[in-house]
Design a protein that fits this description.
- The protein is α+β, with helices and mostly antiparallel strands and 318 residues long.
- Helix content is 41%, strand content 14%.
- It has 9 helices and 9 strands.
- A 5-stranded antiparallel beta sheet has the order 1-2-3-5-4, with helices on one face. The chain has a two-stranded antiparallel sheet with strand order 6-9. The chain has a two-stranded antiparallel ribbon with strand order 7-8.
- Strand 4 and strand 5 form a beta hairpin.
Length: 318
């Protein structure tokens, strides 16, 4: 159960009294999640999600509130935070920072179909067009600088072959991306896996969990999506899902020549980003709570497949 700070009905009812959302009917802890305590809250007027922030840099929470407010104002399917009667969204509950969100409809797509992929690509393209003008700033905490600094911490736990793979890859990224022209920048989701989306059939009900949100290379966000949404269990890319996502994305936001050149390297770099972050959780910095870490091997497999088979051709757009 991923509720690390239990709450009583009385605590939540008092908390809700600051908002114009109705009176508490029921409170249910949400078992999924790895970092924060999450609850489904039903009032006599609506369904909500209450999140208590257990870890992380709490001073960065205003960035996430501002980003979600901004995207919500631009009609992106995100859970814009609920503000209280004084216009304040971020509060404290049980000694933890707390935010209240509308509960968005849908379920995570375990095996996304092509229409869901097209919808996701179109929405991400729209997101990135809008996010280029977002005024907030939070450096990407998992960019090339992080890879360069952190990969040394896990080398002792790897086979000689994997040590060489990781060191060689970081050196290549520094050569290709370190001296490349600046790629288009904007606000990123930073972790747009399938389980951070909600679909009702082929309709995208929402994009959730923005707590890896940051500003940086838009291409980084897109590569994370392709490596999760369009990858087979053996690490190879699925051409149909790849083309469905990228076709609608590129119709919204065409890549620049520099992005097209950097694309194969960015796919590899984001695969290594998750391989490394998962290795760090397993060997160096285990989670504060008794949860099973994600398997690092998945992204080692993806990285090796990108090296062996390269990137697929980008789809043509009108």
């Amino acid at each position: 159960m991923a509720v690390f700070t239990p709450l009583s009905d009385a605590q939540v009812a008092e908390f809700l009294s600051r908002f114009d959302v109705g009176s508490l009917v029921s409170l249910e802890g949400v078992p999924s999640g790895t970092e924060n305590s999450t609850f489904f809250v039903t009032t006599d007027r609506r369904q909500l999600v209450l999140t208590l922030f257990e870890q992380g840099e709490h001073e960065e929470l205003p960035f996430f509130v501002d980003l979600l407010d901004y995207l919500d104002e631009h009609r992106l399917p995100v859970p814009g935070p609920v503000h209280d009667r004084d216009g304040i969204a971020l509060h404290s509950l049980a000694g933890k920072p707390a935010l209240l969100f509308p509960r968005l409809p849908g379920r995570h797509p375990l095996s996304p179909n092509l229409e869901q992929c097209r919808v996701l690509g179109d929405t991400l393209g729209h997101f990135h067009v809008v996010s280029r003008h977002f005024p907030g700033h939070r450096p990407n905490p998992r960019d090339l600088n992080w890879l360069t600094a952190m990969h040394h911490k896990v080398l002792v736990y790897l086979s000689p072959e994997d040590q060489a793979l990781m060191k060689d890859e970081v050196e290549i990224y520094q050569g290709v991306l370190g001296d490349a022209p600046e790629l288009p920048q904007g606000a990123l989701h930073g972790d747009l896996f399938r389980d951070n989306t909600l679909f009702e059939g082929d309709r995208l009900g929402g994009i959730i969990d923005f707590y890896n949100g940051c500003t940086g290379d838009l291409l980084f966000d897109l590569a994370i999506v392709i490596n999760d949404w369009a990858t087979e269990p053996d690490g190879r890319l699925n051409r149909e899902r790849h083309d469905a996502i990228l076709g609608t994305y590129l119709a919204r936001r065409p890549m620049t020549p520099a992005e097209r050149e950097a694309w194969p390297t960015m796919l590899r770099m984001t695969a290594l980003r998750y391989w490394l972050s998962r290795l760090l959780v397993v060997y160096v910095d285990p989670p504060a709570h008794d949860l099973t870490p994600h398997d690092p091997e998945q992204f080692r497999t993806i990285l090796r497949a990108r090296l062996e088979h390269g990137a697929l051709p980008l789809p043509e757009t009108g």
